[in-house]
Automatic annotation (TrEMBL), chain A:
Keywords: FAD, Flavoprotein. Residues 1-223 form the FAD-binding PCMH-type domain. This is Molybdopterin dehydrogenase. It comes from Teichococcus deserti. GO terms for molecular function: FAD binding; oxidoreductase activity.
Automatic annotation (TrEMBL), chain B:
It comes from the Bacteria. GO terms for molecular function: iron ion binding; oxidoreductase activity. InterPro entries: Ald_Oxase/Xan_DH_a/b (IPR000674), Ald_Oxase/Xan_DH_a/b_sf (IPR036856), Ald_Oxase/xanthine_DH-like (IPR016208), AldOxase/xan_DH_MoCoBD1 (IPR008274), AldOxase/xan_DH_MoCoBD2 (IPR046867), AldOxase/xan_DH_Mopterin-bd_sf (IPR037165), PaoC-like (IPR049648). This is Xanthine dehydrogenase. Residues 32-139 form the Aldehyde oxidase/xanthine dehydrogenase a/b hammerhead domain. It comes from Teichococcus deserti. It holds the Pfam family MoCoBD_1.
Length: 316, 731
């Protein structure tokens, strides 16, 4: 770990100002991802801005009937909130499928959205990685890729985004709210939040340097059966091989987002009408253009079968 | 004490303390955080310990062409940097295949090439990251399947009995199948950790090690010191599973770092380093051929196994159980060893039998199906009571059939549907599986020293280790039983190379051999007590803190006198192990559920029935067996070191990438110990049981998965991708 300085910010404006003063600073929330990466010197900020005191830890109703989740709301509290459980069960279920109880007690909404990939080569400083060191190459390509992406990847990077929560937020059309280092605010749909790697896998989100997430808003409840199905090699405490987040309406229409297949939660709205023709057809459309490796080709079949089971459960 | 005749009636047979399900005597220390593990040692001698951080090689094979240390040397808090260039002349330990400190040649990925010592841990780690190393990378061999044809035959474990080839070719029912098991990591909780302190030319290392005598010997050898200049202490061990049988880099580098820094130094391997820096269970490719008559009797049994290791290393002895488990006149077993440049392979969690049974017991399931027989009945039919290669040589005890019968009755085996893929429970396909468990019982010399003090307390000292197994407790039970005192009157001190050399913990030889050593020392102490108090030791009874004969009795304390009474002895085993085959047996029954859509397998219930001699403490023994069954779940369903065959490393080198079972994976587990005493094995009439618990589990699970799905997977771990595309289409 590289030496760093540390400060606590008391308001979003103060945090933004601090970020302006320290261009290579990082915000620290629960620290469950950032600290691990700092120990391995994958993240090497010279300054940390602790955002835990920003009073962004509330879940509030929005005027249009939705909810606004503060950036610092802990994953445990979010999953347990009665409004979330009643109206956005998909989100609660996705959160509870992630990490462990202890981690969820620390992990925050913003931190979860920004957690970094679990590509094993990303964690080993001896291996080439374009995310860690742009231009170095990608050791994962041609290597062990069972966990890695089947769609949306590039010759530069084949990593996936590991967040379960993000899959639910994508299906629920959530919007990320931020304040930039210059104090300006904006709203970024989750659909546009995570970027595909292209030639610049080091740029993972739409955030600008120093931009602070203040919260996430959920549109008014959409009802339907809300199911999150996470598939993994052991029963708990493992990242998804594939996950399916679905909101299925009584008339059979549905929204579906997939986890574990790409660098962002994978949802293709245009393919959703295909759901009427069954899971296989829908997956063919959702994963159209997939380029799996030999190690992870099973993910395409797995996604189709899992979706089929989710749709059957929704109907039952 | 020489043990060369079967045991007769002795004080252990009273079973007042031995055989009782007593709590661990070290439990309170552990649950209150007062048991000092190696890295936490607060001994005065290491009060001002500095911290060492190990740098592992960034390539698998080649040569270091340059090492830039200046930045690290100048970093805050740095006291010393040890590399092969400045460590002084070093030898290689007898038990190490590869040097523990590499450079300039690099033998495997993450081989230690430097230790940075600093005032605190963070400084050492930060400085270590400043070291720049240049390498000339050499070609290496990292792919077992690709080097299979270059593998050489190994004499060890080879069998050629009868006419295997001819009988097999002519057998009316035949199976020829190939199975694979992956490289696996011990993944124990406590990392390899050591604190070293020099006093002049003597070094003491507080470490985490299973085999004190091997460790102390190899540390002396590596440092080129006389053996008596080295002391190793390992009082508590947070799991080893074979990964701590040997001297490893943490202990050597702590000693070298302390010498360089002129201060005590503590070193723990980081989790990412453990998987590639230390040893692992090597992958195997196993070919099994079985031939049988239509009556179900095996006539030909062939088992060949391929594994790889560094030059000078050894094979995974995966065919061992096949020499002894089933009857059949014509037999072939053969190991082949390829040279690989992966990290050093070595013992892990029942080496040999655990991976060997993973293959053999699937093969038996497949063969039963070909014969149209129930897998339990098929195994019972092919039982043997003698060594199949030498019918003159009986087993000392062999209750495999009884294990299978009791297990089948208890588990509800008759409810198993022999047609695979035919049972359904909601979204789950369910199935039952069985496998035989087999593990040889090894016995080895073991010593202990006993002291009786003036208030009648007994202290046992032996370099035996307790790696979470319960050694403290069963040793205390043994001494209490022999000396006729309550268990809370016994103090047990373990894991110190200044104590008598014991069997150590490995190969499930520890419990039986080490308690037998304590037994021997107790017999000596009883004699000394009797003699001092003028009793005839042959008819003296030790009971209630007293020695008694006829109507005369005296307190033990009286015999101790003001200076106490000390006795030391060791048990030495004669050739009973040659006259009799000593093995432990069991049967594993498993029910699994496989998600019909995703192919995920979850274990629902497990039962182990074990016949392993006298069970010294049913509580600690049960803990051993359920732990081993849990490891069996890992081996069956998830554990695999993923090899990058281009760069020569295990890629998933942390506990997020290398999955072991979590609580949610571990269902209802039941263990039954058959009533058995084995007078051939030792005066304790006990045998090993810990490793028996893992042997066969993975195959029982794999067989249950097959019974659930109708899809046979022969490559471990049985992950969903291996059967997904063959599962029935969804409705
Ligand atoms: C062992 C383990 C298992 C796990 N398993 C799962 C799993 O199964 N599924 C899953 O989804 N997740 C899993 N996780 C990941 C976990 O969900 C994340 O670590 C956690 O959500 C991160 O939240 P945090 O608040 O601790 O973030 P931090 O570590 O504090 O921060 C993460 C990143 O977000 C940035 N950041 C934090 N807050 C803000 C803000 N307000 N504005 C801008 N940037 C910010 C930080 O600078 C940093 O770059 C696992 C983690 C571990 C360690
Ligand atoms: S896949 Fe991406 S994260 Fe993984 S090594 Fe390649 S560039 Fe790095």
């Amino acid at each position: 770990m590289k030496p760093f300085t540390y400060e606590r910010a008391a308001s979003p404006a103060e945090a933004a100002a601090a970020a302006r003063r320290h261009p290579d600073a990082r915000f620290i929330a629960g620290g469950t991802n950032l600290l691990d990466l700092m120990k391995l010197e994958i993240e090497t900020p010279s300054h940390l801005i602790d955002v835990n005191g920003l009073a962004l830890d509330r879940i509030e109703a929005t005027p249009d009937g939705g909810l606004r989740i503060g950036a610092l709301v802990r994953n445990t509290d979010l999953a347990a909130d009665p409004r979330i459980r009643r109206d956005y069960a998909l989100l609660s279920r996705a959160l509870l499928a992630g990490a462990s109880g202890q981690l969820r007690n620390k992990a925050t909404t913003a931190g979860n959205l920004l957690q970094r990939t679990r590509c094993p080569y990303f964690y080993d400083g001896n291996m080439a990685c374009n995310k860690r060191q742009p231009g170095a190459g990608c050791a994962a390509l041609g290597g062990v890729t069972r966990q890695l992406a089947v769609i949306g990847h590039s010759e530069a990077c084949i990593a996936t985004n590991p967040s379960d929560m993000a899959v639910a937020l994508r299906a629920l059309d959530a919007v990320v709210e931020t304040v930039a280092a210059d104090g300006s605010t904006r709203a970024i749909p989750v659909a546009e939040f995570h970027r595909l790697p292209g030639d610049t896998p080091q740029h993972e989100t739409a955030l600008q340097p120093g931009e602070l997430i203040t919260g996430v808003t959920l549109p008014p409840p959409v009802g339907g059966r809300q199911i999150y199905r996470k598939v993994r090699d052991r029963a708990s405490y493992a990242f998804a091989l594939v996950s399916v987040g679905a909101v299925v309406q009584p008339d059979g229409t549905a929204r579906v987002a997939l986890g574990g297949v790409a660098a962002r939660p994978w949802r293709v709205e245009a393919a959703e009408p295909e759901l009427a023709r069954g899971a296989r057809a829908a997956i063919d459309a959702i994963l159209d253009g997939a380029r799996p490796t030999q190690d992870n080709a099973f993910k395409v079949t797995l996604a189709a079968r899992t979706l089929q089971a989710v749709l059957a459960e929704a109907r039952s | 004490m020489k043990f060369d005749k079967p045991a007769t009636l002795n004080p252990i047979d009273r079973l007042r303390v031995v055989g009782q399900p007593l709590d661990r005597i070290d439990g309170p220390l552990k649950t209150t955080g007062q048991a000092p593990y190696a890295y936490e040692h607060r001994h005065q001698a290491v009060a001002d310990a500095a911290y060492g951080h190990v740098v592992g090689a960034g390539i698998a094979k080649g040569r270091i062409t340059g090492m830039e240390l200046d930045a690290a040397r100048a970093a805050p808090g740095v006291l010393a940097i040890v590399t092969a260039a400045n460590a002084g002349p070093l030898d290689k330990g007898k038990m190490n295949t590869v040097r523990l400190l590499g450079g300039p040649e690099v033998d495997h990925y993450h081989q230690a090439i430097a230790l940075v010592v600093a005032e605190n841990f963070e400084q050492a780690r930060a400085a270590a990251a400043l070291i720049r190393v240049d390498y000339a990378v050499a070609e290496g061999a990292y792919d077992l399947a690709a080097t299979r044809d270059t593998a050489k035959k190994v004499d060890q474990s080879a069998t050629a009995t009868g006419d295997f080839a001819g009988t097999y070719a002519a057998a009316p029912v035949r199976l020829d199948a190939t199975y694979t098991t992956p490289d696996q990591s011990h993944a124990m909780m406590e990392p390899h950790a050591s604190v070293a302190a020099w006093d002049g030319d003597r070094v003491t290392v507080w470490t985490s090690n299973q085999m004190i005598d091997w460790g102390a010997g190899d540390l002396a050898r590596t440092l080129k010191l006389p053996r008596e200049k080295v002391r190793l202490v390992s009082a508590f061990v947070g799991g080893g599973f074979g990964g701590k049988l040997f001297l490893r880099a943490d202990a050597l580098l702590a000693a070298l770092g302390a010498r360089a820094a002129g201060r005590p130094v503590k070193v723990a391997l980081s989790r990412p380093l453990m998987m590639n820096n230390t040893t692992h269970r090597p992958a195997t490719i196993q070919r099994i051929r079985l031939g049988a008559g239509r009556d179900g009797r095996l006539t030909a049994i062939g088992h060949e196994s391929w594994s790889g290791d560094q030059e000078g290393g050894g094979p995974e002895t995966a065919v061992d159980q096949t020499r002894l488990l089933y009857a059949g006149a014509n037999r072939l077993t053969q190991l082949r060893l390829a040279v690989l440049d992966l990290p050093e392979g070595n013992a892990m969690r029942a080496p040999g039998e655990a991976p060997g049974l993973m293959a053999l017991e699937i093969a038996m399931d497949e063969m039963a199906e070909k014969l149209g027989m129930d897998p339990v009945a098929f195994r019972i039919l092919n039982d043997t009571q003698v060594d199949p290669n030498d019918p003159e040589r009986p087993f000392s005890q062999r209750q495999l059939v009884e294990c299978l019968r009791q297990g089948a009755a208890r588990f509800g085996w008759e409810r198993r549907d022999g047609r695979p893929g035919s049972r359904r429970d909601g979204r789950w396909l369910t199935g039952l599986g069985v496998a035989a468990a087999f593990r040889n019982n090894l016995v080895t010399q073991s010593g202990a020293r006993l002291r009786l003090d003036r208030d009648g307390r007994v202290t046992v000292e032996t370099d035996m280790t307790d790696i979470g197994t319960g050694s403290y407790t069963i040793i205390a039970q043994t001494a209490a039983e022999m000396m006729g005192v309550a268990i809370d009157r016994v103090t047990v001190r373990l894991g110190d190379s200044s104590f008598p050399v014991s069997a150590g913990s490995g190969g499930q030889w520890g419990a039986n051999s080490a308690t037998a050593g304590v037994y021997a020392a107790c017999v000596k102490l009883r004699d000394a007590v009797a003699q001092r108090l003028g009793f005839n030791s042959a008819d003296a009874v030790f009971e209630g803190g007293q020695i008694r004969a006829g109507n005369r009795s005296a307190d033990l304390a009286e015999a101790a006198g003001p200076d106490g009474l000390v006795a030391e002895d060791s048990i030495e085993f004669g050739d009973l192990a040659e006259t009799y085959q000593q093995s432990t047996f069991g049967a594993h029954f498993v029910e699994v559920a496989v998600d019909a859509a995703t192919g995920e397998t979850r274990v629902r219930r497990m039962l182990a029935v074990c016949a392993a001699g006298r069970i010294l403490n049913p509580k600690t023994a049960r803990s051993q067996v359920i732990g081993a069954m849990t490891m069996g779940i890992g081996g069956a369903l998830m554990e695999e070191l993923a090899v990058d065959t281009r760069h020569g490393l295990f890629v998933n080198h942390d506990l997020a990438g290398y999955e072991v079972p979590v609580h949610a994976d571990v269902p209802h587990q039941e263990v039954i110990f058959l009533d058995e005493v084995d007078p051939i094995s030792s005066p304790m009439k006990a045998k090993g049981v810990g490793e028996l618990g893992i042997c066969g589990v993975a195959a029982a699970i794999a067989n249950a998965v097959y019974n659930a799905t109708g899809v046979r997977v022969r490559d471990y771990p049985v992950t969903l991708d291996k059967h997904l595309d063959r599962l029935p289409a969804l409705a």
